[in-house]
Design a protein that fits this description.
By secondary structure, this protein is α/β, with parallel strands linked by helices. The protein has helices spanning 2-18, 35-44, 55-72, 102-109, 136-151, 203-215, 234-247, 262-265, 277-293, 319-330, 355-360, 421-429, 441-445, 476-487, 493-505, 509-530, 561-564, 588-595, 605-608, 623-646, 654-686, 701-706, and strands spanning 48-50, 78-79, 88-92, 116-123, 126-133, 161-163, 169-173, 219-221, 253-257, 299-302, 336-340, 371-376, 400-405, 456-460, 570-571, 611-612. The protein is globular and about 80 Å long. Bound molecules: 4-O-methyl-beta-D-glucopyranuronic acid. Homodimer.
Amino acid sequence: MKYLLILFLSISVASSARANDGYGLWLDYSPVENSQLKQDVSQLFTGFYFFGKSPTYEIIRDELEVAGQKMLGSSPVFSTERLAQTQVWLGTRDELSQVLGLQTQAQIRELGEDGYWRGPIVFQGKTYYAIIGNRSIGVLYGVFDWLRSIQTDTFDPKTENSESPKVKLRMLNHWDNLDGTVERGYAGFSIWNWHKLPGYIDRRYIDYARANASLGINAVSLTNVNANARILTTDFMKKARVLADLFRPYGIRVFLTARFSAPIEIGGLKTADPLDPGVIDFWKKKTDEMYSFIPDFGGYLVKANSEGQPGPHEYGRDHAQGANVLADALAPHGGVVIWRAFVYSHELDEDRHKHANLEFGPLDGKFRENLIIQVKNGAIDFMPREPFHPLFGAMPKTNLGMEFQITQEYLGQATQLVYLAPMWEEVFGSKTYRPIPASRVGGIVDGTDSGQKLTLVAGVSNIGTDRNWTGHMMAQSNWYAFGRLAWNPDLSSEEIADEWVKMTFGQDPKAFAAIKEMLLESREAAVNYMMPLGLHHIMGWDHHYGPGPWVTGGRPDWTAPYYHQADSLGIGFDRTASGSDALGQYAPEIVKAWSDPTQIPEKYLLWFHHLPWDFELHSGRTLWDEIGLHYDTGVKTARKMEETWNSLESEIDPERFEHVRQLLAIQVQEAEWWRNACLLYFQTFAKRPFPAEIEQPTGDLEDYKKRSFPTAPGIKPKW
Ligand code: GCW
């Protein structure tokens, strides 16, 4: 009996080792199938030589070991001497200077601190493959890029490739609370185990850093922007130091969120007035202390005077006065303040859309050099589709960074597959017409159009303790896409999908084509079944799960009718000059085109216009019919995604297949729920039949309204 038990245990251990639970992310390295490629790469794996020493090179060795085993079935060979039979040379430009031509050296220098060059170099008549950076981190990025090219079957040993990131700070923002919960987190709890730190190092910290480094993510803010001042106490600094030490060789700097009232809460002061000498001194000393633990500490991320968070307004000071005090404390150490522009009034705004520009616009030019204003992609709040935030282009003398939300608060949480790269691509590609006529959001953020040197793309993390990291394993694609776009905002969502699918599922052509198509259509599907044609903020109360166009109570701008404005005459928020004139905050070219409901792209129609139910759209249909059609199309695409996936059963490993299969079934139900509930609700105003061409909504509106979700994850902390 005892033996049987042991046998059983060892079988189940062995089989669970083979099962794919998604923990390996896009770094699980499937075997190389292309025989020419396999031959080329196998040859290269017989001789790696590092020109220098660094903890980062140890990481590279480990990565090559894993990659060699998994892709080629054998370990790489490392040489301690630069022998003729070595194949791949790795190191920094300085370390390789003896063997590099002057021109190559100059070319590499141009690539800056995070760039890399990889390609063939000829030395004493023999050709080697070299991966070179200006710093060891560049070498690491180059190696990851090289491995990616092998996994995506694009590697050519004869071709030179060089890259440098277009954005300086490529950053994850964790909304992780010190009690282990994650605000808007749908993948379990926080991966930071503050209780066991600093003594215990969870293996996950290292795997997390590795995954980020593979994308070029180089900054992480560990804690929620709804901040707890305790993170700035000495005890927590000691814990954060452990993470910073672990992340350093991966090129990642740690940031923390600073609560504006920390001088009172942990400093024993009576005020947090940024002009008070005691407060200035508090921030200076706190910051000096922080650097004594973390010498490359990144800086502070701050949410102030927003949704009840304390800030400079309490003392009659503006955002610049508040932010600059922190910036001055960080400046001598090379740190940066990231100050969020997500603000809206404690009192009710006329239109919340306008608030950030009204508060920040007049402060243009007043913020320090080592300070960057982090602006959400849209002016309301990470909706499934928003027009770009009008601050982009409106503050030419201020560093502006982008904040995306990777965690799917408003895009299906962790029960839905929604690939977000098309949304981010749309935002970066949006024309702003300022500061120069050809400006796009991406060009402002990466400095091309704005000229700013300090650049930032931040994403609110979707990572948690779930074994597959992101709750829905397909949401790994969003972590991946975020990192790739932060590195280069000009990449297309399609290129990124190509890479991710190949790296995650291997190269089976049927599975590749099918999964890629599912990813690429998923975001538009979600917009359609949730909030089409510019509708926004009509989700469930507080937990934000599911539809809630009927949600009222509390402050009006937290309710749905404030945004959809449906009545017997029509629907939509008039933000033109005849309404709130939020549109007037954009460049004149946009104001002109979008003021006209027949000119504005229909995807933004109801964001800016209140229109009669019978208003005729480009299709010739009435607004009412078109709304119905969009909702229905969304549902049908969700069903198609489900069918596509189900046809892949023999191509995908059972564990991942089943995981995604179940979630897609839920997604279809949720899409139907959104469509039914929203259409039945809007029909109470429109008082028209549903268009005949759509599947007729079913269910009872009153039942939909009564649904409650006490177990929905990710709700705000109660402290
Ligand atoms: O979208 C809202 C979220 C809040 C979040 C806030 C913000 C951290 O519902 O949970 O708070 O945005 O971005 O500050």
